[in-house]
Structure to design on (219 residues):
């Protein structure tokens, strides 16, 4: 079955071709592969229901990313804290008490490559994508404000232009650039590897450093 949009028909397969990259995006946003898959399923359902009003101005992919971003932002807004393990008091008391809240990054879950990474493409880009789903980087992202997180992922990981991100977030290019600067400033700098006597210490590459220090395309 296909949905007719203007003079073009969009089939479910055309939506499904973006599922894997959307799962990767939502995983970086949410830190949970299970929540990421739920977010993408919600995205696909919303997209299918809204196809009748879809106008192909920027293309199907940016439209799906806009929906996925809104889904993730809504999930992050409504999420107060994850279900926490229960601390059991001494057996004699028979009392149970809820554990103290732990930092959000403590709940980050690994994601299988086959669910979040492209199956083909440039090997160099594939290596960068792999770096961007490492637990250390995904955990670091969770310390950013949700919109900062979205901007940094779209700009530094997915290499979107500032104007494209501004359109997606319905804001200005200046606001996107300002948010990106704040997000980068909030990320940790690469650590230094201990040096031998008489030698200067050398920086240890981190996921953040590897992504944000790449040569930049013209914007």
């Amino acid at each position: 079955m296909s949905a007719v949009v203007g003079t073009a028909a969009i089939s479910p397969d055309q939506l499904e071709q973006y599922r894997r990259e959307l799962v990767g995006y939502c995983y970086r946003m949410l830190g949970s592969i299970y929540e990421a898959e739920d977010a993408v399923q919600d995205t696909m359902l919303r997209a299918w229901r809204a196809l009748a009003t879809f106008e192909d101005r920027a293309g199907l992919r940016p439209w799906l990313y806009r929906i996925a971003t809104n889904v993730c932002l809504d999930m992050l807004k409504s999420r107060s804290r994850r279900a926490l393990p229960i601390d059991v008091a001494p057996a004699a008391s028979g009392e149970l008490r809820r554990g103290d809240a732990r930092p959000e990054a403590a709940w980050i879950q690994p994601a299988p490559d086959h669910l979040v990474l492209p199956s083909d493409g440039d090997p160099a880009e594939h290596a960068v994508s792999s770096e961007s789903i490492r637990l250390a980087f995904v955990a670091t992202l969770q310390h950013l404000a949700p919109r900062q997180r979205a901007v940094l992922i779209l700009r530094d990981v997915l290499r979107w232009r500032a104007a494209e991100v501004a359109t997606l977030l319905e804001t200005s290019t200046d606001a996107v650039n300002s948010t990106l600067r704040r997000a980068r400033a909030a990320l940790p700098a690469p650590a230094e590897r201990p040096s031998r006597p008489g030698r200067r210490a050398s920086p240890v590459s981190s996921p953040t450093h590897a992504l944000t220090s790449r040569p930049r395309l013209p914007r």
